[in-house]
């Protein structure tokens, strides 16, 4: 398996169909995992939230990415770890730090980040509530981007949409650079390292019965 850069259009074709968020979000760079010239996975890097950009580091003088999306077809052993590890080596702006989250609402605790030696800094809840849309917990930003709903609380009340409390997201960091640069970035991190990784029983969400390559236009 090899990893190479991909366009936003390729990432969007796969993420919008196979990732539970159904959206790419802000896209800076993307990478695809290929097996015999056939794409079997994608990961996307983009812009972190404004609060994270402002508060995650003290006197930050390096770029901060967020690994925003990760999709790998089932049946490719260690595919996600291979994709992330190689993509981090190919990212265009270095030195840099990368943040990513594992959403416990979907049964995730960040096993792939643990396997690739990311730094765990605990769990966080970044918003007040989710909205149940057609049986699916939906983020307020998704409502805005997909349906144009700018006041979700008012819309939910008017339409009898259930609100639910979000579960925490596990927060991980990775530093890209030489040994000296990594040490400098770590010293500026505002969060404390949590030595014990979280654990959950491994689970998979339903990403449909089509492979990544089937969503790419010929």
Structural notes for this entry:
28% of the residues lie in helices and 28% in strands. With 218 residues, it is an alpha+beta fold. The chain has a domain of 143 residues: Gcn5-related N-acetyltransferase (GNAT) (Aminopeptidase, 3-Layer(aba) Sandwich). The strands form two sheets. The protein has a seven-stranded mixed sheet, with helices on both faces. α3 links the parallel β4 and β5. The mean pLDDT is 87.
Keyword list:
single chain; 218 residues; alpha+beta; Aminopeptidase; 7-stranded mixed sheet; 3-stranded antiparallel sheet; 28% helix; 28% strand; globular
- Output the strand order for the largest sheet: 1-2-3-4-5-10-6
Strand content: 25-35%
Beta strands, count: 10
**What series of H and E elements makes up the topology?**
EHEEHEHEHEEEHHEEH
The CATH superfamily of the domain at 2-101 and 109-120 and 171-201 is identified as Gcn5-related N-acetyltransferase (GNAT)
What is the CATH architecture term of the domain at 2-101 and 109-120 and 171-201?
Answer: 3-Layer(aba) Sandwich
Q: What is the share of helical residues?
A: 25-40%
Instruction: Give the class-level CATH name of the domain at 2-101 and 109-120 and 171-201.
Output: Alpha Beta
Distance from N terminus to C terminus (CA atoms, Å) equals: 21 Å
Shape: globular
Largest sheet report? 7 strands, mixed
Taking all Cα atoms into account, the compactness measure Rg is: 18 Å
Ranges where pLDDT stays below 50 over 5 or more residues in a row are none
Q: What is the typical, i.e. mean, pLDDT?
A: 87
Structural class computed from helices and strand pairing? alpha+beta
Give the number of helices: 7
At the fold tier of CATH, the topology name of the domain at 2-101 and 109-120 and 171-201 is Aminopeptidase
